[in-house]
Amino acid sequence: MWLLGLHWALALLVTVATSGPSADPPDPASIFADLSPEELRAVRTFLMGRPELGLSPSQGGPLAKNSLFLVELLPPKKRSALRFLEHGGARPRREARAIVFFGAQAEPNVTELAVGPLPRPSSYRVLGFKGGRAVPFSARPMTRLEYELLHEALVAAMAPLEPLLLEATGFGFQNCSERCLTFSDIAPRGVGPGERRTWLVIQRFVEGYFLHPAGLEVLLDHQDPDPRRWAVRQLWYNGRYFGTVRELAESHARGTLPLARLPEPPTRHLFSSYEPRGRFTSGTPTEVCEPQGRRYQLRGNRLEYGGWSLAFRLRSSAGLQLFDVRFGGERVAYELSVQEAIAFYGGHSPAAMQTKYMDAGWAMGASSYELARGVDCPETATFLDAHHLLDADGPVRFRHALCVFELPMGVPLRRHFDNDFQGGFHFYAGLEGRALVLRTTSTVYNYDYIWDFLLYPNGVLETKVHATGYIHATFYTPEGRRYGSRVHSHLLGNIHTHLVHYKVDLDVAGSGNSFETMDIRFENISNPWSAGARVVQPGGTRAGVGQGPPYPKLTPSLARPRYHLAVTRRHENEPSSSSIYTQNDPWDPPVTFESFIRDNETIEDQDLVAWVTVGFLHVPHAEDIPNTATPGNAVGFFLRPFNFFNEDPSVASRAPVIVRPLDPPTCSRLEIQRWTPPSPGACVHPEPFTYNGTY
């Protein structure tokens, strides 16, 4: 069995040994590979040529049009994939998932299509959601075109406030080429289904503009497909609400408005920049090296390391997804993938209290910008490009969007000093700690998420996400102190909670698995070998199905984070716990995770999925300036073997060191055993390995 380990629970997946002999077809991982640029172009060309769809280019034109928003791989059904992977069956039909915005019709909507077969598509069919739920047009993600129109509408609406803004900030909207104002938009966009009213935080456009709110927040209604009908519905300035732009402008003109004057931003050493300032002594950077060369193999989207083998892809919609994860040739998981990243905030301003970010709705998988060699990944890493077709009229290459590298952990995987208690030792043995890391990032506007999957030589797999980037901050008012910290003169760092959701489709010794928990409690019993004495000791009770302690009840879209762990039977119509539509319609989303766990199905000896939520509370502080640092802001979980092997599988490693004294207890002559050659690498200490062991 394999252990799904989190800090709060001990959860065991009990298996039924039903696996049979596995086939070894050529390039099996390719059935899970992301679409190539040629495939992306082929899908777009095919759909654009279908007259019944009436598609227009994504860029330009009106909002009320039919357009192609997203194209990505539609993974094969599990049954056909396993038939191919294990039994030499036919290669599954390769298809694309295409999202179309149908805005040029009487009842606009969003429709998903399966397009294939690839690489030469010739047909399509409609993809439905569980329960036949439709996607209203108001639930669609934002597009570049809508942002451009939103900016134009905001600039026009803010014209009467230009004197106020110039006096208070020194920056403006009108005829702007320098010293401009910009905005960050908040979601959800309203308080109920069908709405598209967005609070906009006005900011000075300088480096790190997320930390430069101007004190003005604007509620702009952009629900109508015709931008000429968009309008400002409300404003908030320096702690006060105003019903119209005119009301705020007149208050300023009369001199009755308490003005929030911002200091002139310096030309150098701006607090929101990365420019070094202050005193800090540091030496040369440390480096990761590979003295014996790379110990992993990368063939297309197939990654192999030690006993590990897996296929991977980077979904445009939601990010990293692993398939066919094996250790020692045995499949332990069919799928392991990121589902959603949520951050919900508190605050005194309307934008802050409205902020409930669900980053799949911002296509966090396609926010995988270039990784810097030597900073984001070690110098020795292998870098991979990604191609996305998202809100564009063709595939876009994202250079160095992923990296793979072996990482020394700085702590041994295991070690022991066997003391002879006479000033010497019987033996010393240790095994270096290393792991292979598969990494990408998602920069969703202000926040940067660093996504890692780590493979250890003892059969342990770790998922980890680090949060960094700029905090989501609002304008400071005394009333706001309840909801965060004053991190700069006019800046409130708003309290928020990060929650990240994963899908873990474990197939341990086959797909027929069960779920049980072990409840560890202390017992107080009579001592059987000493009359009248008591023994207090821990003991474990294995129990049936559990879902873990719930979080406070939230809207339907936030049902996922109510559970640290929920286990359900796997269904093809439940591929994901969230969707890109949830952000803009969290009240009635097309995917409702609660329906996955309320169907009263048995989960004994079934194909099971574990849905895992990890997270942390972030109370911003001054040290989050300019950016939140990664130490202390990382969460994840482990998949660990639990009585699956006869012993630690890392005993197969050739990297241990064993030292035995040849003349105990003097220990003046030592036998040192190593199974890897000494390294001539420049980044390794030039002296040979030595050990004394006396004390």
Structure description:
Its EC number is 1.4.3.-. This protein has about 700 residues and is mainly beta. The chain folds into 3 domains: about 30-125, Nuclear Transport Factor 2, Chain: A (Roll); about 145-255, Nuclear Transport Factor 2, Chain: A (Roll), CATH 3.10.450; about 305-515 and about 555-650, Beta-galactosidase, Chain A, domain 5, CATH 2.70.98. It contains 7 helices and 36 strands. It has a 15-stranded antiparallel sheet that branches. The longest helix has 14 residues, at about 145-155. Residues about 5-25 and about 545-555 have low confidence and may be disordered.
Number of separate helices = 7
Tally of extended strands?
36
Structural class: mainly beta
Mean pLDDT: 91
Q: Going by CATH, what is the homologous superfamily of the largest domain? A: Copper amine oxidase, catalytic domain
Strand content: 35-45%
CATH topology (level 3) name of the largest domain: Beta-galactosidase, Chain A, domain 5
Separation of the first and last Cα atoms? 42 Å
Which stretches of 5+ consecutive residues score pLDDT under 50?
5-25, 546-553
* CATH architectural designation of the largest domain: Distorted Sandwich
**How many domains?**
3
Shape: globular
The main pleated sheet reads as: 15 strands, antiparallel
Please write the CATH class name of the largest domain.
Answer: Mainly Beta
The helix fraction, in percent, is: under 10%
Domain Copper amine oxidase catalytic: 287-524, 562-650
GO biological process, one term: amine metabolic process
InterPro entries: Cu_Am_Ox_Cu-bd, Cu_Am_ox_TPQ-bd, Cu_amine_oxidase, Cu_amine_oxidase_C, Cu_amine_oxidase_C_sf, Cu_amine_oxidase_N-reg, Cu_amine_oxidase_N2, Cu_amine_oxidase_N3
Domain Copper amine oxidase N2-terminal: 38-123
